[in-house]
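Q: Structure for this?
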Amino acid sequence: MNSGLIQQLSNSIFYIIAGLTVFFAIRLVISRNIFHSAIFLAMVLMGVASVYLYLDAEFLAIAQILIYVGAIVILFLFVIMLTASIHDRSIRQVNKQVLISLVSAAAFLFLIIKVINASFQQYPGPSGAALSVKELGNALMTTYVLPFETISLILIAVLVGAIVIAKSGKK
Amino acid sequence: MIPLSHFLILGAILFSIGIFGVLTRRSAIGILMSIELILNAANINFIAFEKFLGAGDGLGQIFTLLVITIAAASAVIGLVLIIAIYRNTKNIFAEDINLMKCKIRPLNPVISCPCIYGKYFIRP
C-alpha cells in the first residue's frame, strides 16, 4: 500500500469518529433516561480521546480514558444509582426552554463556524514535531512546576471537602 | 493531514451541544454531564492550537492536563453536593432546589427574612 492511500484512510476514519462523537453527544443531551446519558458520555469521551491521538497527544489520550471514562463516568453512574427513581422514563427530563435554547445554541454555532472559516484557513499542516512524553514530563516538573503544585493543593482540598460535605449531618 | 479548522469546528459543535444541554436539562446530574462536554470541547481546541500554532514547548498539552484535573475536581464536588441535596429534599431537579428562597413575604419587612427556620418557612 502506498502512503497516500493510508493517509486518505486515516482521514476518513477521523471524520467517522468525529461524526460518531457528535451523534453520541446529541444523544447524551436529548436522552430521556439519564443512565443512558452517562453511557453516552463515556462514548463521547472515548471519541475525544481518539481525536487527541490524531493530534499526536498520546499521553493525554490515555489520561483522558483513565480519568474520565475510568473514574468520572463511574462516579456519575454511582450518583445516578444513589438518587433513586430519577432514572425512570415517565419523568420529563427537559425544561420549558428547549426551543429558545436550541435557537440560541444553533446561532452560536453558526457564528463560531463563520469565524473559524474566516480566520483559520491558512494553517494546513502542523507547526512542529510531536512532543514526547519525556519532554512533557520534563516541562511539567521544571517550567510549569508551580501550576502542577497548585493542582495538587486543589486536589487535596477537593478530597477533604467531598468527605466533609458527603458526611451525614446527624451524629 | 486534517486542517486545523476541522478540529475547531468539531470543538465548536461539541461546545454548542453542551450549552444546549446546560440550558435544557432538568436534573442536576445532566447539567454536570453537559459541563463535562463543554470542557472537552475546550480541550480539543487547546490541543489543536498547540499542534498547529504552538512553539513546541507543550504548553497546550500541560494546560489540557490541568483542565482535565479541574474538571474531575468540579465533577466530584458537584456530585457530592447533589447527594447532599438529595439527602435533604429527595429531589435533584435544578428548578425545584429553592431551599434558600423565601416563599412568603415576612410580615415586617424591616426585620430580615426568618424563612428557613422561622414560621414563614414552607417545606417544599
